[in-house]
Amino acid sequence: MPIYQYHCAKCNLKFELKQSFNDESIVACPRCKNGAQRLFSPVPVIFKGSGFYVTDNRKNVTADTSDVKVTKAKEADKGTEDKAKQ
To answer: How far is CA 61 from the centre of its chain?
Structure first.
C-alpha cells in the first residue's frame, strides 16, 4: 500500500497516511479534524549505465549524413528498377 503525504491548512500539520488505491481520498486531520489535502512531490529518477551523457554516444562523423540517406535510397530504387526490367 502506498504512503501519501497530507497537509492541513487550518493547523498547518503535515502527516503521512498509508492508504490503498480503493480508499476515499478525503482525509481528516488527526489534530483538528479539518479536511486535509494530499501533497504531490516529484518522483526521483536515477540514470544508471552508459548512454545517458552526451559524451557516451558521440561519434566522430565529419560527413553530412543526409547525403548517405539519399545515396542509399537511390541504390534501393535502382534495385527495384533492375528487377522490373528482368
So the answer is: 30
